[in-house]
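B., you asked whether I could sanity-check this one before it goes into the benchmark set. Here's the sequence:
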Amino acid sequence: MFDLRADDLADLPHDVRAKLFAGLSEAKLLTLFRDWHFWSLTGQRAHADDWRIWLVMAGRGFGKTRIGAEWVRVLCQGVQPVRVALVAATMAEARSVMIEGESGILSVCSTRERPLWEPSRALLTWKNGSRAQIYSGENPQGLRGPQHHYAWCDEISKWAHPQDAWDNLQLGLRLGDRPRTLVTTTPRPMALMRRLVGKAEMLTRGKMDDNVHLPRAFVTAMAQDYGQTRLGRQEIDGELIEDAVGALWTRAAIETIRVITCPPVRRVVIGVDPCASVGGDACGIVAVALGSDGKAYVIEDATVSGAGPEVWARAVAQCADRNAADKVVAEANNGGKMVESVLRGADFTMPIKLVHASHGKVTRAEPVAALYTMRRAFHVGAFPALEDELCGLISGGGYEGPGKSHDRADALVWAMTELMLGRRGSDGPRIRGF
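And here's what the prediction gave me:
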């Protein structure tokens, strides 16, 4: 009906859009209203044809269910009858989401095209003879035997027996010349999900915010409540977030020490892991506060990337000013002297402590990780980039996080060490008895 799609028309002036729709009859407008080809967003469409597994790994609200329902509708309304397997975590979810949901198969089919739905048989039947049978990840044996042309798997990360159910399903996809499987799911770290990411010929990623059809107020509220937390990155942004084997920090553990505010502050230290050249690694800048309860609180990650010494030294000064810091601790092995000279040149009067790394970076991080385990260190809010680096530090040495180096994590370690692991500890001078 239109050569353009809805997301293309959204960029046109209002009067131009009005003219395009003015000439359409009521019947054509109704047809357009139900036309998935017109309304689907770029990320919701198959961008290739030669595929066997299409993995749509996206956040909630992206439109995953609609993608699956529309795909099944088109297949089952074709000239030749086909058999489709609909697999959900449970039979109840298959019915309530994939079949009867607001974006389910019955909803996307017009009254004239709607299939016969027999809940007692867990079966959809189209007029041309196409059939879609529902199955559950709770019962892998139910997929042993039946044959299908196609399969739609929903929320595979919730299946009770993911690998067994998947294997039995794939062994039954032996009808037709091009058996295919569409997987629509919110990502969760699990063995089958990892294999599918590497195996799928077509991989679609998406966020809740990508779906312009959602109410903006809802999207904004979700971002405010959950944005940048592990839950938000997984459930809203659709990120597959995993923990490295042997990591000093785990994401689940970090979630337990996340707080909204910190108690009255005794002092603040800025940890700096310098970068000696422009365009090199980032300069890690992390502010850590010592609370009145004697515990440490990460309050800001002010790290800058690709900047020269004067730029990141200025960022250090600004971070210190914002947080009323009383000391800057900088590694002297790699540009630490530059931090001091640049700050002094700008009349920066705050005490600067230059520290020399006599041990490996991971070795220095281990006692700091212990502070988290003992619940003596907390994060005020979320610091996703910093937390990704922390979770990439491996006990005994090694780094499996993002990027080539862990500058943010190193800066945190310097600040935490100064505040909590110095000679005087976290509570000032102590009296030793003999």
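One thing to flag: The domain at 40-218 is CATH 3.40.50.300 (Rossmann fold). Otherwise nothing jumped out at me.
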